Amino acid sequence: QKEVEQDPGPLSVPEGAIVSLNCTYSNSAFQYFMWYRQYSRKGPELLMYTYSSGNKEDGRFTAQVDKSSKYISLFIRDSQPSDSATYLCAMSDSGGSNYKLTFGKGTLLTVNP
Amino acid sequence: DSGVTQTPKHLITATGQRVTLRCSPRSGDLSVYWYQQSLDQGLQFLIQYYNGEERAKGNILERFSAQQFPDLHSELNLSSLELGDSALYFCASSPFDRNEQFFGPGTRLTVL
């Protein structure tokens, strides 16, 4: 079983839709959870950063963490064509200054005008 | 722009060769991480340096090595290259006390 599982999609939605992206994980030591957006042939861009369980909102983006279920989500409201990209979840434990990230394989999202 | 720079952008070489990838972290960041991204494996952590010292190792092959210099830039050396080493190689950096990692634009390595 992989440490982090993420549905690769592809996911295609109309402009303005609410998008839900999810990851599950098996390592209960993970405490830091991140979402990255990666455009084709570009480096991953940090979108959201959360610690432990709970919700965090930033503009049209909301990240949710449910540690009891080992499940994290990213919601995108009022999706735009510019949101079309691959979305990667990433996690790390609290090992001092050793903050290696374990990534999901990414979900490819297309928002159609 | 994350503030992390990587050179070169593209590298094409032959099997058995050796290459060096270079990374400059964001100003003030002490940690540098190297990742490999391939279609089948996704983003895989290779190695971390913190202020010049190796801190963590992931799935890094023995043919690969890295170092971080006093000015905090880092180099990833890949030797005896094989076709399967073709991938995107990313460098990321983070502040000393936080694990928000900021990624560079990557180096695309093609081994022919």
Topology:
The complex is a heterodimer of chains A (113) and B (112).
Chain A lengths: L3 E3 L4 E4 L4 E7 L6 E7 L6 E7 L2 E5 L2 E6 L4 E6 L8 E8 L9 E2 L3 E6 L1
Parallel strand pairs in A: 2-11
Antiparallel strand pairs in A: 1-3, 3-8, 4-5, 4-9, 6-7, 7-8, 9-10, 9-11
Chain B lengths: L4 E3 L2 E4 L5 E6 L6 E8 L3 E9 L2 E5 L6 E5 L5 E5 L8 E8 L7 E2 L3 E5 L1
Parallel strand pairs in B: 2-11
Antiparallel strand pairs in B: 1-3, 3-8, 4-5, 4-9, 5-6, 7-8, 9-10, 9-11
What does this structure look like?
The complex is a heterodimer of chains A (113) and B (112). In chain A, a hairpin with a 4-residue loop joins β7 (61-66) and β8 (71-76). In chain A, the strands form 2 sheets. In chain A, strands 2, 4, 5, 9, 10 and 11 form a 6-stranded mixed beta sheet that branches. A 5-stranded antiparallel beta sheet of chain A has the order 1-3-8-7-6, with no helix packed on it. Chain A is built from no helices and 11 strands. Chain A is 0% helix and 54% strand. Chain B is mainly beta. In chain B, a hairpin with a 7-residue loop joins β9 (87-94) and β10. Chain B is globular and about 40 Å long. At the A-B interface, β4, β5, β9 and β10 of A face β4, β5 and β10 of B.
